[in-house]
Recover the amino acids of this structure.
């Protein structure tokens, strides 16, 4: 596991080529989610991406009926490593789809974007611009935390 801090994640964000995804789902047990997080770690490396930085995230998840639930989950911050931006986005979206996520957050330029990875994950939208990286920012729809310090994306 890589030791990391908010300032390190901020510098990754400044360079661009970063994504946040999770293997957890609100309808799974804690044990199932832990196993999925471990497997996601292996899958990330399997796609030729550098090892992920683990953070605690929260996200408003939608089920098939459209009911929203706020879920706390183990999230993975991944950088593009040696992959090009297009291939990187494709790899991240494929992982999001495999784990049944509503969306994945990718940032290849200065601002982040949520990309839907399943039908209805973001309503009718395929993707939503979420703005710039905000260290110490708070967002009711979703934010992440590392060593007690939060970060999010906003305009």
């Amino acid at each position: 596991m890589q030791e990391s801090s908010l300032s390190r994640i901020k510098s990754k964000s400044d360079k661009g080529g970063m994504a946040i995804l999770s293997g957890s789902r609100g309808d799974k047990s804690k044990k199932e989610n832990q196993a999925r997080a471990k497997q996601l770690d292996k899958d990330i490396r399997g796609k030729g991406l550098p090892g992920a930085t683990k953070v605690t995230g929260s996200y408003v998840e939608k089920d098939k009926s459209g009911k929203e639930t706020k879920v706390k989950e183990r999230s993975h911050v991944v950088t593009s490593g040696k992959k090009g931006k297009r291939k990187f986005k494709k790899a991240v979206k494929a992982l999001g789809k495999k784990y049944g996520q509503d969306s994945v957050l990718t940032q290849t330029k200065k601002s982040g974007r949520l990309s839907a990875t399943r039908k209805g994950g973001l309503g009718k939208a395929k993707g939503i611009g979420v703005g710039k990286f905000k260290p110490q920012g708070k967002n009711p729809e979703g934010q992440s935390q590392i060593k007690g310090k939060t970060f999010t994306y906003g305009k």
